[in-house]
Amino acid sequence: MSYGPSPESTANVDTWLENRRDGFGLFINGAWSASAKSLDSVNPINGKPLAKIAFADGADVDTAVKAARAAQPAWESLGGHGRARYLHALAQLLRKRMREFAVLESLDSGKPIGESSNVDIPLAIHHIHQHTGWAQLCEAEFPERRARGVAGLIISSAYPLLMAAQTIAPALAAGNSIVLKPSEKSSLSALMFAELCEEIGLPPGVVNIVTGDGSTGEYLTDHPDVDQLTVAGSAAVGRKIRYRTAGSGKTLALDLAGQLAFIIFDDADLDSAVEALVDAVCSNQGRPGAERVQLLVQESVETRLLEKLRTRVGKLRVGDPLDHNTDLADSVDSAWFERVAGTADDSIHEELFRPLLSVVSFRLQSEAMEQANSGSCHQTASVWSENIDRAVDLATGLKAATVGINCHTFSVFGGEGVRDQLEKYLRPRREFSSGDAAAEEMPAAGAAEGAFTEDLLPIVRVGDSGQADIQGAVSAAARAASGVPRSGIRRAQVLYRLAENLSERADEFCWRLARATGVAEQAAKREVDASLVRLFTYAAWADNYDGAARQSVQRGIALALNQAIGVIGIGCPDHQPLLAPISLVAPALAMGNRVVLVPSEGNALAAPDYRRLLEQILAPSCIPDGVVNIVTGARDEILRTLAAHKQVNGIWYFGSAVGSQQIERAAAEALTHTWVNGGKFPDWFSRDEGEGRHFLREASRVKNIWIPGDE
Q1: What is the pLDDT of residues 93-114, one digit of tens each?
Q2: What dotted CATH number matches 11-257?
Q3: Which CATH class name applies to 260-290+300-413?
Q4: What's the chain's Rg over C-alpha atoms?
Q5: Quick one: which H or E segment has residue 506?
Q6: Where are the domains positioned within the chain?
Q7: Where residue 246 falls among pLDDT bands split at 50, 70, 90?
Q8: DSSP, res 443
């Protein structure tokens, strides 16, 4: 069947651009200001300039951040209802002008009008509407929580307005002011959005938009008065920003382009799977910021599926992106699709589909899991099977933030729940209260000599800080993944057994703690008693830190599961030598993680009995082999090594401010999750600071499993 042209009119957008032929300024403090330099926004289809946009330098970014800082207190004080009314007005006005935004986005980015008008802009409106509701509910649902302050938002060219809405809406709903830096390749929809802010009378300085290239983003990244930084882009950009922000105290949220694992079993609806696969591969024209697809197909249907894929790709309509019948804009090199459509059956293989698609076959479900999890963590995955038990079982085991069952979904379509998005822009209810530099005075380097290497029970590995010992501990933790109880109830039983062991021998442990560390026996008893309470607390949380069933943007339901991070390296502080390690290890174990525990030199190296004390507490508790591993030596050096290790998924560090910065820098290349204290310490005896949900959040990540259903 052939289709006649169905072009979308550009008249309104052409008029809008013509009225701004002198160029766009920077939107700062509710007004438009000029910049010293400018750059062209170019239509990627025909190469013609659409408009001139300002090029913000360091002084411009500083002005924008100062405007945001000045406006933020009043915006937060407006209250949830006041902020909700502004967000509602934004959503309504965006809905009214959605066709203009869709046309502008297609002109500026080159994506087909069908994608921008039917997916991107409606989802942007949806995100703002949802956060309108959360602005209204914010004070009731998050009592005693304050906004972080000034949020810097840096977005890629992949989904210009949708990504902007995903970051602007939760930041504003939580009471933050923002400075947005869109991609220089697709800035126009953000500038049109600024006009909406003017039209609804948004208070000046609450939303500021600065345009420019990567250097503008660097100025925003480095600015000392930015409290929260959210970045959407490539992994390379994420690594660079992780390194630049190390030790700055900024809260960093990265939404990085990754790879979509697309897994098809032999009982799947192959026609539906192929349709979704083509949609996934072609989405966003395969440009940087779009997800690459790893296709895993069961061997028995590989030939049939690839034939169907070739047939479907051969029918793609390549042409004018402003034509509603266009599947792929003609600015994209269509040779790849022609090769797929014209290749003989027996010559389709992985190389053919690069760089957009790789193809690997598997026989068993276990092979599919192993192949999908063999690389880095996927942002999203898609599982196709009529066997819902198999699909859900595979979905829970995949290293992916969002998994669609018999559907595909991108992370921008709801990888996180709206509540989770909002919470990123709120300060914790309780922040660590004390900066105790004296407590972190490390012993001389010579103290590392004579590190404890005596053989212990197999659950604990104790060695010096040599590379072999670190690698051995990490390898033991990695191998222990299959031994970790999947049931929260079973993990709770392990922690209760730990508590029972501590309780049964409380007097002995008090004496040993006093002898090993030199504290008074009364202080030792207080610490043992508090450690016992802490173990009971996390045993209770182990099977009660629940996920949620969430409404989805589209039909169906999304299951949000709290899952373990994996292998966590934990660096302990000097003070509270028993309570602090217990307070850190217990939540990690409660969520199903494996641990490489690094005591501080001040305790572990100065007192061999202290190491024996930790071993005796842990040994009789039925912890599976390799789940807890202890390495002693120069704590900061060991943690830096762990932070860069590819098999380590997270680092918790409780030490000095300088050490925190070094850990964050060491973790930048591997993009390892870090939780550092910046030189501030909790009151470990406090149930507000020393335990609670904030520890569990750091010990877990949310996985969303999207199951489609009927309307």
Answers
A1: 999 999 999 999 999 988 899 9
A2: 3.40.605.10
A3: alpha beta
A4: 27
A5: helix 506-517
A6: 11-257, 260-290+300-413, 457-707
A7: very high
A8: P
